[in-house]
Amino acid sequence: MAKLYLNESPNEKVEKLRPKKETIKFLLNYSKALHVLDGKHMQYENLLN
Amino acid sequence: MKKIETTTDATLVRQYLDGSEDALSKLINRHQQRIYNFIFSKVFDRDITEDIFQDTFIKVIRTLKRGKYNEEGKFLPWVMRIAHNLVIDHFRKNNRMPKFDNSGDFNIFSVLHDEDLNAEKLMVKDQIESDVRELIKELPEDQKEVLVMRIYKDMSFKEIAERTDVSINTALGRMRYALINLRKVIDKHNIVLTKY
């Protein structure tokens, strides 16, 4: 039974999709640029390029 | 020999919170395919998948940087939940803002939607999901655990087996009995879980 469930999907193409490199790069740059500042009563987000 | 990945998600999250951008890169790299495929399996469109994937991680980054993340050890299910919610938002938005297809003949019925009916459908769907959640609570603990991991956290049976420290066959068996027991309860109480 385990074998039945663990067999690779016939739709192999779908299984191997990945996000674009640009998307990953954007996210990593976004993370580097984002700074959260703690205010007295709330937090402020700041994007530093 | 293949090098075994030993750094846990929780450790990487901690390193990221301590300022290591490289840790975020590792987390994204580790889970990107799973999350991307999960989104694609729901929306079947590469561009939309790309957008939702990006929005998911923007939310992850913002939550982590704001210090609001408190689910140590459950990073992937948490990210999957965010992705799942964004997929739902996407479908809700699309239902409310129907776009007509310019290819082929213009069909007025593809643009006109009965908003009341949509709201009703949404309420019925929410009610069904809420009923199912209540029914799941009635299941024996071991079956409930497997069902929740599989359906709500989208974990594979291999992962469930590892997490619950049982064999894959046991995990599969528990899932099978969970579904059988759910059906029994539904039949016994004549519960209607269909949309229309």
In whole angstroms, the N-to-C terminal distance of chain A is: 53 Å
Helix content of chain B: over 70%
Structural class designation of chain B = mainly alpha
Mean pLDDT of chain B: 82
The chain-level structural class of chain A is alpha+beta
Strand content of chain B: under 5%
Mean pLDDT of chain A: 76
Instruction: Tell me the fraction of residues in β-strands of chain A, as a range.
Output: 15-25%
Number of domains of chain B: 2
Q: How large is the count of helical segments of chain A?
A: 3
Rounded radius of gyration of chain A (Å) = 20 Å
Specify the overall morphology of chain A: elongated
Strand element count of chain A: 2
Distance between the termini of chain B: 56 Å
H-E order of chain B: HHHHHHHH
Count of DSSP H/I helices of chain B: 8
By CATH, the architecture of the largest domain in chain B is named Orthogonal Bundle
Organism (chain B): Mesonia mobilis
Protein name (chain B): RNA polymerase subunit sigma-24
Family (chain B): Belongs to the sigma-70 factor family. ECF subfamily.
Pfam families (chain B): Sigma70_r2, Sigma70_r4_2
Write the layout of secondary structure elements.
The complex is a heterodimer of chains A (49) and B (196).
Chain A: H1 2-6, H2 12-15, H3 21-33, E1 34-38, E2 43-47
Antiparallel strand pairs in A: 1-2
Chain B: H1 9-17, H2 21-43, H3 46-65, H4 75-96, H5 115-137, H6 141-152, H7 157-164, H8 168-188
Helix pairs in contact in B: 1-2, 2-3, 2-4, 3-4, 6-8, 7-8
